[in-house]
Amino acid sequence: MLEASICIVSKNRKSELYKTLQWINLNVDLNQAEVLICLDGCCDDSYLLAEKFSDFQWLILQESIGASPARNKLYKRTKGAIIFGFDDDAYPVEKDFICTAQKLFKSNPKVGILAFREIRDLNVYNEVQNKVRGEFLCSEFIGCGFAIKREVYFKTNGFPTWMKIYGEESCVSVEVLDCGFDILFSSDLVVLHRVNLSTRKKQGHNQYRFKNQLINSSKFYLVYYPFRFWLYKLGRLYHHNFTKYAVLNRTFFFNFFQAGIATTLFVFELPKYRKVLKLDTLQKMRDLPAPRI
Q1: Which CATH fold would you assign to the domain 4-195?
Q2: Helix axes 67-75, 168-178, angle to 10 degrees
Q3: Residue 177 burial by CB count (10 A; 0-12/13-18/19+): exposed, middle or buried?
Q4: How far apart are CA 187 and CA 183, in angstroms?
Q5: What is the pLDDT of residues 151-209, one digit of tens each?
Q6: How far is CA 249 from CA 27, 252, 258, in A?
Q7: What are the coiled-coil residue ranges (predicted)?
Q8: pTM of whole model > 0.85?
Q9: Is 180 left (phi over 0), alpha (psi -120 to 50) or beta?
């Protein structure tokens, strides 16, 4: 079995994907790891990168199915003992990240997922890397950079096919916790996330994120929580989003009601996906910190 599989899903971000693949190509030994990329219904010419990086494995979807279903489809093709997931605009800071992950998994046998430390500015990181360090169990991982044991991933349902984007990491996290494994945050694993917040804002990502996160949070409670918690969790969720966002902006108001309709329709599909978590898992989720320092 290969030591590692590196998985990336991308959509219409050729230049960012190129930077990430260039780093991987220069720093990863392909005798040690495989690299898998899924192009999720790209409208640009991202497919041309498949010729330049022909040693990598490519899954090119003609129509977009969403980031989470695309991850689900891609991860089924992996062969490595450890699966690394990165966003198309992110790559590890350290070249020996595979070796570091192997050591952490070996010294922590109950850990199923390693959560990377996310940084946005390499210069700032270089100034504080020896001052700010930490290692602790946490409630979930950040999707821009993580590692999961292959055997653990396939004990879960994998990335959900019932949501497209925003929140899928939480689903994998809770299913891993429910299987009896832990999630470990380590500052020894660092991912540089080259996110451009101003560009995303101009493209309307805030409204898009609002709607999808509201839908996916609703679905999350419906799929994983016991029925007796539904009224409290959904009521609190919709009250918060209505008073903080929907009443202040017409676009958010419209998206709020669209999310409510989508959630209602999802109830009819719910039996296919329902997987109630143990009460101990729900308590553990509340007690553990987020993966940040």
Answers
A1: Spore Coat Polysaccharide Biosynthesis Protein SpsA; Chain A (3.90.550)
A2: 50
A3: buried
A4: 13
A5: 999 999 999 999 999 999 999 999 999 999 999 999 999 999 998 765 555 544 588 89
A6: 46, 5, 14
A7: none
A8: yes
A9: left
